[in-house]
Amino acid sequence: MQSLRQLLIAILCLLAGALPAAAAQFTVNSTADVVDDVPGDSVCATAPPTPVCTLRAAIQEANALQPGPHTITLPAGTYTLTIPQAFFPPGDASGDLDINTDLTINGAAPATTIIEASSPVSGNPFRVFSVYSLTSAVPITAGISGVTIRNGFVNGDGGGIANSATLHLTDVIVTGNQAGDVGGGIRNIGTVTLTRSTVSGNIASVGGGIDNQRVTGLTAGEMTITNSTISGNSSSFVGTGGIRNNVGVVTITNSTISGNSSSSFLFFSGIGGIENFGGVMTITNSTISGNSSSPFFFRSGTGGILTQTIDGNPPQIGVVTIKNTIIAGNVAPLGSPDCFIGVSAQGVSAQIDSLGHNLVGDDSGCSFPHAAGDQVGTAASPVAPILGTLADNGGPTPTHALLGGSPAINAGDNGGCPTTDQRGVTRPQESFIQPVATLATSAGQFSNLSAVPESILPTTGKPAGLAFPFGFFSWTVTDLTPGQQITVTITYPTSVSPGAQYWKVTGGTWTNVTSLLGNSNTDGDNSLSLTITDGGPGDSDSVVNGQVSDPGGVGVASTVAFASFRPEVEIKLHGLANNHHTDKFEVEAFFTLGAGNNGIAPLNEALTLEVGPYTTTIPAGSFKQKKGRFKFEGIIDGVKLTAKIQPLPRGGFKFKAVGKCADLTGTVNPVTVGLTIGNDSGRTNATAEIESGHQRAKCGDRRDDAEDDKDDKDDKDDKDDD
Question: SS3 for 240?
Fold first, then answer.
């Protein structure tokens, strides 16, 4: 029995030794780059006497514990890698951060959580992350989210990240990295998913932003890019600026490839945006625009996308499938600006397969069979996409807005379309672009008249304090005499507030063109008239060509509710004296501005005050400023009014108003109190102290009202406290 018990204990011990390590969770509390004291002891701590948990130490612990999955929480901060790369022994104790176990790193946000390599030491540069499995028999999966990865530098591959495992990148920014060979931002031979992320400003000889490669029989070379932007990356020599796919599989959905660049040299041609070299790519609901390949003497490459076949037995045919995608507005002065289909030395052509509803600006290098809904231009007659500049249009990544008149508006196919766009806005959007006005022109005729959803317009430069309740319209009036002036009348379903403004959005830029309205925005009715001259202000193409284009909309002041508004009210009902009202009120209120406010400017904004039945507006420009306080004194509609606004050191504002000779007849509790300054407003009910029956001989007669004398003296002293 004893020997049997010992055998059972031995078996249990063996089983316990075979159990995987429990998933560990570490929270980093130091931005320093210091190694873990005892990797594998389940404690993230540097050496005494003041142990802390650094990012490197947490990764070392996770790697040593194997296999996970482990989690690292990374608070906001800048984590700079300062330990030079050691050539022996290699590993996670120096240089880049090596991940070789199932591990997730969660940062606070890419704007606030930054992981960076230090300036490269001569002869000893290193990247930021290397993700790999220690053995092919035990694959690993890693995840990184909510961080910026920057300033990596290697002579070889993968300046920011080198991956041969499975890696999920979510809500990350990969920027400012450099590789001497391929993959300035990301080099992948494993599997990568890139979601809601930006890869920008990276440099490599080939694949400035991303290099994806499949090694047949050895590595996957698969990449999925969703709701992401690849922009501003470049090839330092003759290569690809944005993305190179070398025999791999790349799927791009709801993403933007923009502003990437390359150059040509001698007989070698660069590719600005995307190169598909013997691989398979599927591109859906995406934009490839603004990429460029600069020329060298007599040749340049392709600005947008190139697909090429690799000879072999069998050949590896480069296949690109596109749907609902814009490939336009790219540049290659002596080459193919938007796309190119290559033919191998053995005469095997690559291919572009259209599933329909694409917009290709110039197909001079990539003639392909068109499908339903395709809009395809030529070198002689290119199709302009009419896009805004790359900007923050909402969502986590920069995008190109479709500007008024863009042929891509309402040109996609909802079938099989992702349920949201790159910004996360729900599709379809038809319900947001139904016309809500009638337009008429004094000459010519309308073409390309359409309503434009505000959600697709750029937020950068958008006027603060305005709402656009009737949306935006894009239209062109044709059949005009060059230089002719026209009047376009827009009739809305409801009245337009006096003082309304008219704004145009052209080339991603907001411009105030209210002057084109003349006096039509002063009467408060439901129509506005725009007077525009062909080629003059307000004509979006700025060309005297017999047509006028205008993408724009009417803006009215929007109201932002106070976050808090606490008024106290005193009212004295004196009644009539010599047929004049002699009632008096005093309001003292504390308020804070609400979310989305653009501040208050008492010197140039109107103020409206409501106290029970009494309402008055102090016109803009009426306040004077002294020692940080704002004060108005005057008579409005027979009421002697004093109003003061004082910013408080602890935040918020104090407001005080005294009105004499007002008509407050019939005022009872609760009393409605409202205050509006510009487009910031608060309104609530207050229980007032109400006195009545003290009839004055004459409103404003200080000799008959000693109390008013005291009030006036207090006003002059103005010793208000907080």
Answer: strand
